[in-house]
Amino acid sequence: MPYFDAASSAPLHPVARQALLAALDEGWADPSRLYREGRRARLLLDAAREAAAEAVGCRPDELVFTPSGTRAVHDGIAGALAGRRRAGRHLIVSAVEHSSVLHAAAAHEADGGTVTEVPVDRTGRIAPGAYAAALREAPGGVALACLQSANHEVGTVQPVAEAAEECAAADVPLLVDAAQSLGWGPVEGNWSLLTASAHKWGGPAGVGLLAVRKGVRFRTVQPADERESGRSPGFENLPAIVAAAASLRAVRAEAAAEAERLRGLVERIRARVPELVPDVEVVGDPERRLPHLVTFSCLYVDGEALLHELDRAEFSVSSGSSCTSSTLTPSHVLRAMGVLSEGNVRVSLPRGTAEADVDRFLEALPGVVAGVRERLGAPKPAGAGAEAAADPDPEPKPEPEPELVVDSLGKRCPIPVIELAKVIGEVPVGGVVTVLADDEAARLDIPAWCEMRGQTYEGERPAEGGVAYRVRRRA
Amino acid sequence: MPYFDAASSAPLHPVARQALLAALDEGWADPSRLYREGRRARLLLDAAREAAAEAVGCRPDELVFTPSGTRAVHDGIAGALAGRRRAGRHLIVSAVEHSSVLHAAAAHEADGGTVTEVPVDRTGRIAPGAYAAALREAPGGVALACLQSANHEVGTVQPVAEAAEECAAADVPLLVDAAQSLGWGPVEGNWSLLTASAHKWGGPAGVGLLAVRKGVRFRTVQPADERESGRSPGFENLPAIVAAAASLRAVRAEAAAEAERLRGLVERIRARVPELVPDVEVVGDPERRLPHLVTFSCLYVDGEALLHELDRAEFSVSSGSSCTSSTLTPSHVLRAMGVLSEGNVRVSLPRGTAEADVDRFLEALPGVVAGVRERLGAPKPAGAGAEAAADPDPEPKPEPEPELVVDSLGKRCPIPVIELAKVIGEVPVGGVVTVLADDEAARLDIPAWCEMRGQTYEGERPAEGGVAYRVRRRA
């Protein structure tokens, strides 16, 4: 039963399991105690810290273990902001950071701080010089900048080393969230703080990493605690820490070969999906990306139904579509990229994924998508002459009055886009159709549909009960 | 090799180990995902929450899992204080709470809040009505009160139900830190919030509990996160959570019988140690106490040397003596009780402790203590006619001038008390000896020695380089 959601949580690596079992017997005592069980626990903790620090590329005394990647991010950002309170209260983040970073930024804003979100291009990547520009244009002293090493939803690798240089030039520390990439290799460049999460690389849950380079001002905002250099309160989760360090070392040893193999499988998905499934947009940077992750969106498809059908076919994937989120808004990553969010599928291959499973996925996907589309009454695929074929007259005409209006109020993604696609053929070339919708996904997906279909998106305006989106037929 | 420090961390219960192993295979996926691995993880999480809530005595939706007992305390106190910001900013704690509570209180003070520490008697117990008095005398609106269910250093059980009634009458929530007692049974009374730590009952590290009764105002101060009702950010440590819940159920099933058995062993230690070792003070409430924990202090003994010798004899215990703490101050619990801190030993028996091991401990202890005393040049035991015997004249006399002064500046516990004991015989009855000392433990141990020896402690005053402690010879 193929599990293709390693980016959410990777199955436990055999080395992690083995190390965890051994440490359950040897590492349950308090490592701060002086008796033999305590000393044994302390040795295990020290060895785990050395191994993890080596993999991170920092000194052992720069690294602490936290209870999760999220707590590493929360405590790391709060500590760096507090440590640099005198330098200012501005925080710079990219628009496509993990929610833990964006939530920490929102907490900082609620506390009176200010935040810049650096935009990304259509591949999800920040532009060269983007952090330098954000630093220049900051409204006040900048305390901290944050940039992920690679995006968790679309796999795009960020230019961390360049951003770190830009930050260093402005004497501002850069925190790198390396949750998605640390298993594949160390983060390049002159970063100041780094966070990661063990269960993303095949380690156990319950362990995050927070590295703070010597010389970086840092003040813990948690109540005092003597453990983990005072930077992560609470009794050390030692067996899991031992398993995390051991598995990080193990996945690194396999990383080069496995990255190459998975990159080939992902390349196959990237190439084959658009051939096999009509009206698909593969998103993310085609070259500078994580080896194991690929994301695409399918027009006229309900993401939740798609995931459900794939689960029935025994494929476990995730989605950034609005209907799969508790807030019914599309993923902030897809929004920042400006790409289609409906029918979104993220495939992230765990280490050891069999080629045959990827092929089975590629066999199953077209039928699953077609089935969902059929149930939704989606238009026939483009190229099969569906949408435009309804209009026998391809000549430009003056815009007729009144405009065609599609009322999709109260209808959820992907219905507004399906209804738009169904009527576009009735609009003369040069004419305009207005879609009324109150679903948040329409704001992203109607422009994305225009881009994919070669139609002209003319913008939105408020309308009674929702938003009016104007689309001009170009062909 | 007997391990007698269950109060720091209990060895992993076999049921915890078994459940952890099973959940490593079944529970590594993200429980918020909709595919089968996620649904399976969600089922495990829900079942663990139900089991833990039943053991706590609350509804499952009142209980969240945190990464440790310390984080449960920190997040619980911060959330309750924030939720009741309008009611006021005063916090009431007992003077003998766990350091995680006192550190949270200190953080609250640093943030502009105010704190009352409710004192305890010589057994470590708060007085009846003490919380009502603290509520009445609070300098402003009280946001929260905290009281441990039982003390972690001396085992004294607190009158939680009474304190909860006093708080309820004032409409103030009571947070109970049940870390030491939850494995033995639910906390009685009308508490509002409750915290606990799994590795204290034989569960794994990495799991704390935070229960917040419906109707208690609570506002998470952490950045937003959708997991654990927004009250404990970060990916759930699921295998450990499953193991924590399973082992809590298991230890509860064994609790009544095991408590009775361990209570008998502890009773033996309480009775025999003062018979076997001269100049010992057994501390804590003799009746209202945890079944598995006993603490005593040995005059004229260096706690670190004592622990080291016991470790060589293969007994693992802990100590509240100043020399065993990183800050070189005696345990705040012993200080609040006003009992001797030198040569302090806490014995906390894990479940399953063999009677023979306790007897071996009782056999080994007298020789170990005598050895440490001999190396320190301690006076011979009282009753053997040591200290007072040096003075052949028991008649009261007018106080001579100049007083006898012992200069113990620069000397660490237990040396100042040993030097005091050595000279007391040279002081005429009714006369005074002054001890100059700069070791923090002297402030506690000189009065405690006077209490044990029937001498009169007359108080302290600042002196050059330290503090002058006045002792009047009574007999």
- Per CATH, the class of the largest domain in chain A reads Alpha Beta
Order of helices and strands of chain A: HHEHEHEHEHEEEHEEHHEHEHEHEE
Strand content of chain A: 15-25%
Extended strand count of chain A = 14
Question: Uncertain runs of chain A with pLDDT below 50, 5 residues or more?
Answer: 384-392
- Output the structural class of chain A: alpha/beta
Q: Can you walk through the features of this model?
A:
The structure is a homodimer of 475-residue chains. Chain A has 475 residues and is α/β, with parallel strands linked by helices. Chain A folds into three domains: 14-251, Aspartate Aminotransferase, domain 2 (3-Layer(aba) Sandwich), CATH 3.40.640; 255-376, Aspartate Aminotransferase, domain 1 (Alpha-Beta Complex), CATH 3.90.1150.10; 388-472, Translation Initiation Factor IF3 (2-Layer Sandwich), CATH 3.30.110. Chain A has twelve helices and 14 strands. Chain A has helices spanning 14-26, 36-56, 69-83, 99-110, 130-137, 160-169, 238-276, 303-312, 332-337, 355-376, 415-424, 442-453; strands spanning 63-66, 90-94, 114-118, 142-148, 174-177, 193-197, 208-212, 280-283, 293-298, 344-348, 404-407, 432-437, 456-463, 466-472. In chain A, strands 1-7-6-5-4-2-3 form a seven-stranded mixed beta sheet, sandwiched between helices. In chain A, strands 11-12-14-13 form a four-stranded mixed beta sheet, with helices on one face. In chain A, strands 8-9-10 form a three-stranded antiparallel beta sheet. In chain A, helix 1 (14-26) packs antiparallel against helix 7 (238-276). The two termini of chain A are 44 Å apart. Residues 384-392 of chain A have low confidence and may be disordered.
